[in-house]
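Bumping my old thread because nobody answered last time. Still need a sequence for this structure:
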């Protein structure tokens, strides 16, 4: 999945974790933490990302027919937005890998932080795979069900 790994060690490859130790940075690690273990808050019976925008919330409340729909749209993440300017290395296999890992992470985080408010976490894989931006991750509380 990462062609650069085979170029290390005179063509003998390097393990992914070792490669990250060599090319990553602490600045990046802190940034990734906000995506891979986000802060969630309970606000007016919604579970939202801590940095949610009140104006957006109120706008989506007017547009969406259910609380689950509001939570879904407020919490959605386009996987390609993690690195919106990295057109060279983005590919469907990387999007699928990250989307599925993030789904597991969000399920664990939400269950840990809100054990009394079970959530549905969805990694949306579009039927028409023409644009990678259509792969999205989001969640909503089961009690608001009415599938989004």
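Sorry it took so long. Here it is:
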């Amino acid at each position: 999945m990462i062609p650069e790994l085979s170029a290390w060690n005179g063509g003998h490859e390097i393990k992914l974790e070792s490669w990250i130790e060599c090319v990553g940075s602490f600045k990046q690690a802190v940034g990734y933490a906000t995506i891979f273990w986000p802060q969630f808050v309970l606000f007016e019976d919604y579970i939202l990302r801590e940095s949610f925008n009140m104006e957006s919330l109120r706008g989506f409340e007017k547009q969406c027919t259910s609380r689950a729909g509001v939570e879904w749209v407020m919490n959605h993440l386009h996987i390609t937005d993690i690195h919106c300017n990295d057109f060279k290395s983005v590919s469907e296999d990387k999007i699928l890998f990250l989307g599925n890992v993030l789904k597991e992470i969000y399920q664990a985080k939400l269950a840990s932080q809100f054990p009394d408010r079970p959530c549905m976490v969805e990694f949306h894989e579009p039927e028409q795979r023409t644009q990678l931006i259509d792969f999205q991750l989001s969640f909503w509380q089961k009690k608001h069900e009415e599938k989004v």
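The beta strands are 40-43, 46-49, 77-78, 119-124, 136-141. Let me know if any region looks off to you.
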